[in-house]
Task: inverse folding
C-alpha cells in the first residue's frame, strides 16, 4: 500500500483535470432469485485501469459489476449487478466525463423474464431459456451528441485483429484494446494490442497494473 | 487466526474419527469459453461447515465450486467448476466417507452444448439456450448401497417447510438443513431450520460460523 502510494506520487499527472468513467467486471443477469448468467471476468483489468487513471491525476469513477476487488485509492465506485443497471449508472455519469473506458464484460443477452421465485426442477429432462439482447453501452455512449473520448475493449478467443478492427469501426471508438481471452480473462497478467487510427500497437505481456499504465500512457498521448 | 486456533482447541471433538465429505459454493456451467450459468452462492456456509467439522475432530474433505474463500485449517480441498466435475470428485471420495454434507448450490441444469469459441452477438434480437438436467449428487450419494450419513441443504425463496420436508423424503436423507434464500445466500449470516425424523429444529439467526457449529452439534448427536 505504501509502495503503491509512493509509485502514484511519482506517476506523471498526464490525465490531470480529466474526468474518466470506467466500467469493470462481469454483469449478472438473473434467471430467478438465485440463478443467473454471468461470465468469468474478474474485474482486475478494469480496476487496474481505474487505479492507473487516478494515479495519472484523473478524477476516476468506476461502475463495477459483481466482483471481489478492493476499490483503488481515490476512485469513486458504483456497484451494479445487471447490464441494464450498468447502462443506467453510466448514462447518469457520462455527461460529466471527458473519457469513457468500457472494460466490463457486459452480458450481451439477458433472460427475457426473471422468475420471482426460485424455479423448481421440472419432471422432464430439458428446459429452454429465452434470451433478449442487452443494450450496447459502449455504442450508446459513442453515439451521444457530444461523446467523451471512448475506449473499448474486445476480449476474443480467436481472430483478434479482425474482430477488433470490425468492432472499432462499427462502434466508432477511437481506441480499442484487444486481448485474447486465454491471455487475460480471470488471470493476473494480460497481453493486449491497441488499435487506433494509426494502426496496431502491441503492449508487452505483464501484470494487469503494468498493462493498465501502458494503456493510460497511450491514451494520454492521444488526448494531448 | 490465533483466536480461531484457540477456539478449535477447546471445541469438543465430537466428530473424532469421522471422515466428512462436504460440497460448497455454486457450480459454473459453461455456455462458451467465457460465459456460463451460475448462482449467487458464496460458499461461506459450506466452508464454515468444513471448518466446524474439522474443529470437531473430523477428517474433512471439501469439494468446492468457484468461490473466493480461504481453505479452513486442516481441511482437504478439491476445486471444481461444473456439476459433472463435482459429481466425479464426490464419487471418487465418498466411499471413504462416514458423513456426506451437500451444501453446494449445484446447478440443476447445464447448457446442452458449450460453444468452443466465444459466441458472437447475432443480428437478431433473441437467442435460446437449451438446457439439460444435471445429476442430483445428493440423491446419488443417498442411493449408494452403503451410503454415508447424508445431510442435505435446501435453499428456498418461499414455502420452506413444505419444500424441505418433500426434499428430505424424496432424497431419503436423515437430516436436511433448510434456509430461506433471503436469509442466507451470499451473506455473512444465516438462519436455518433442521428437519429430521424427530421434527423441526430452529437454529437461531447468527454468523455462518456459529450456525455451522450448531449444525455440527446436532449432527454429532444423531451420529452418537
Result:
Amino acid at each position: 500500500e505504501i509502495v503503491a502510494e509512493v509509485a502514484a506520487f511519482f506517476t506523471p499527472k498526464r490525465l490531470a483535470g480529466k474526468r474518466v468513467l470506467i466500467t469493470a467486471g462481469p454483469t449478472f443477469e438473473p434467471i430467478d432469485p438465485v440463478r443467473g448468467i454471468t461470465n468469468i471476468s474478474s474485474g482486475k483489468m478494469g480496476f487496474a485501469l481505474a487505479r492507473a487513471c487516478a494515479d495519472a491525476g484523473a478524477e476516476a469513477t468506476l461502475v463495477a459489476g459483481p466482483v471481489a476487488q478492493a476499490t483503488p485509492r481515490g476512485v469513486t465506485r458504483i456497484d451494479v449487478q445487471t447490464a441494464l443497471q450498468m447502462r443506467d449508472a453510466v448514462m447518469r455519469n457520462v455527461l460529466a466525463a471527458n473519457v469513457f473506458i468500457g472494460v466490463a464484460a457486459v452480458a450481451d443477452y439477458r433472460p427475457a423474464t426473471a422468475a420471482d421465485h426460485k424455479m423448481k426442477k421440472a419432471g422432464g429432462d430439458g428446459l429452454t431459456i429465452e434470451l433478449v439482447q442487452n443494450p450496447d453501452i459502449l455504442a450508446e455512449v459513442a453515439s451521444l451528441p457530444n461523446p467523451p473520448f471512448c475506449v473499448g475493449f474486445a476480449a476474443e478467443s480467436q481472430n483478434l485483429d479482425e474482430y477488433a478492427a470490425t468492432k472499432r469501426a462499427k462502434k466508432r471508438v477511437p481506441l480499442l484494446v484487444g486481448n485474447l481471452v486465454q491471455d487475460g480473462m480471470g488471470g493476473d497478467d494480460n497481453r493486449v494490442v491497441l488499435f487506433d487510427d494509426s494502426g496496431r500497437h502491441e503492449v508487452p505481456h505483464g501484470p494487469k497494473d503494468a498493462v493498465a499504465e501502458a494503456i493510460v500512457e497511450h491514451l494520454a498521448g492521444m488526448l494531448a
User: Anything to note?
Assistant: Chain B has seven helices and 14 strands.
